[in-house]
Amino acid sequence: MNSDFHLGANTATTPGPLAHVHVLVTRPVMPASRTAQRLAALGATPYVFPAIIIEPPANAAPLKDALANLSRYHAVIFVSPSAAEMTLAPMGSAPIPLPPSVQMFAPGPGTAEELHARGVIDVEIPTTSFDSEGLLELPSLQADVVAGKRIAIFRGNDGRELLREVLEIRGAIVDTITAYHRRPPNTSPTGLVELLRAKKLTAVSAMSSDAISNLMRFVPVDEHAMLLGLTLYASHPRIADTAARLGFRNVVTTEAGDTGLITALLSKP
């Protein structure tokens, strides 16, 4: 089976509070597997369809240079769990140690958790919203702190420019480093279509707007009605807006990460 497409179901024999939930997980493979394990531990049946594939950058030289010279930075920002994974421990390799003098930032608890798993414990996250806007509200990223300081932003090949633009306006010297390349899957989602036709799915988890857009492109038009009728759990209002625009009729905005998804699923009657 092509690694772009994997369907995995819960094989636990003990019923849990989410035994009625059959959820499609659309995250990239590594974080999706962890999400699926957490859902299965609560009795849910998770099916993994990575609607975004994460690969090393085509040109790894800027990433290698940045990692070899991390001590020159005042602060480092990882914009996503994939940025943390592909920067510090790409494809399961041993984690790269970070200088203790450098301040570490993440846009939310999911990315912070990924950093913690790789030995980066002291990570600052927003207190207002778990996104770039929330990061920019932090006192430690205001102009009186970052002016003249060098900051690295590790991100994907199509990252938002807001962080860089605002930090540069505030006087920081910002290096944006591509830590990974994002692309849609190549594999035809035959197994997913079969699940939709058999009405085995009850929900979709989306932690990226691109994941929803890719999912809609890969599911045949004839099956769109079944897909759009599922409850979609979006981990950010921006993702929820994308889902609603694409036609999902029941969109639930959750808190960030696996915790937000599970809390919302447990709260549903």
Your description of this structure?
- The chain folds into two domains: 22-52 and 185-267, Rossmann fold (3-Layer(aba) Sandwich), CATH 3.40.50; 55-182, Rossmann fold (3-Layer(aba) Sandwich), CATH 3.40.50.
- The chain is built from twelve helices and eleven strands.
- The strands form two sheets. It has a six-stranded mixed beta sheet.
- The radius of gyration is 19 Å and the shape is elongated.
- 41% of the residues are buried.
- The protein has helices spanning 29-41, 61-68, 81-88, 109-117, 132-137, 143-146, 162-169, 190-197, 209-218, 224-228, 237-246, 257-267; strands at residues 22-25, 45-48, 53-55, 75-78, 103-105, 123-124, 150-156, 173-183, 203-206, 231-234, 250-253.
- The chain has 269 residues and is of the alpha/beta class.
- Helix 9 runs parallel beside helix 11.
Task: Specify the structural class.
Answer: alpha/beta
Segments where pLDDT lies below 50 for 5+ residues? none
Helix content: 25-40%
**How many whole angstroms does the radius of gyration measure?**
19 Å
Average of the residue pLDDT scores: 88
Q: How many β-strands, per DSSP?
A: 11
Shape type? elongated
Q: Which oligomeric form is depicted? A: single chain
CATH class of the largest domain: Alpha Beta
Q: What is the count of distinct domains?
A: 2
CATH topology of the largest domain: Rossmann fold
User: So how many helices?
Assistant: 12
User: Which percent band covers the strand fraction?
Assistant: 15-25%
Return the string of H and E elements: EHEEHEHEHEHHEHEHEHHEHEH
Biggest sheet features: 6 strands, mixed
Which architecture of the largest domain would the CATH scheme give at its second level? 3-Layer(aba) Sandwich
Q: Between the first and last Cα atoms, what is the distance in angstroms?
A: 36 Å
In which order are the strands of the major sheet placed?
A: 3-8-7-4-5-6
